[in-house]
Amino acid sequence: MLFNNLGFTQQQRSKPFCFPTFFPIPGLFLLPVVVLFSLGMGGCTGRTVISQKPVLEEQFNPLSLQDDDIWEELKQPAPAAPETTLAGPNRQAVTDTSQIEQPQYIQGFRIQIFASPDRQMALEVKQRAELFLEEDLYLEFEAPYYKVRVGDCLSFAEAETLLKKIRKKGYSDAFRVRTTIKLQPGG
Description:
This protein is an alpha+beta fold. Among the domains are: 7-12 and 19-39, no CATH class; 105-183, Sporulation related repeat (Alpha-Beta Plaits). 34% of the residues lie in helices and 20% in strands. It has seven helices and four strands. The chain has a four-stranded antiparallel beta sheet with strand order 2-3-1-4. A hairpin with a 2-residue loop joins β2 (137-142) and β3. The longest helix is centred in the first third of the chain and has 15 residues, at 25-39. The model has no long low-confidence stretch (mean pLDDT 75).
């Protein structure tokens, strides 16, 4: 009866049951799909279920610690530093730097004599230039170059005068650069 419903011929029904005759070759490719579907892996509903865990928002308030000993320490004034230190055989004199005028920085000009990505080479050029030039020299880093620059000129005219002087000393490739300079105290 089962064989009649499946459409088997009389010759196929008389043979003993074997796998290839019961499932023809195209059916073999369908077998894994049927097995997966029957196990529940083939039937996707299209929905993704994400387990949601509660989100904890933590906030820290140091005032809630109730650490009275720390607060008492913080309320106390800082101990005063000694105003003077005596210089002795094993001590160095401490200089009071509170009265020293700190330099101010403004826009001005410097003369650039060298630039290189090699820091050591720039240091060597700066050391050699200190022997020939009476001006202040600076080693500045502006990525990716180390630049050797000379002077602190307030005006364009002052920078031009310094540039001519530096070119006469042998730095023919030197040029003027607008940059931040150190304003000398009292000047």
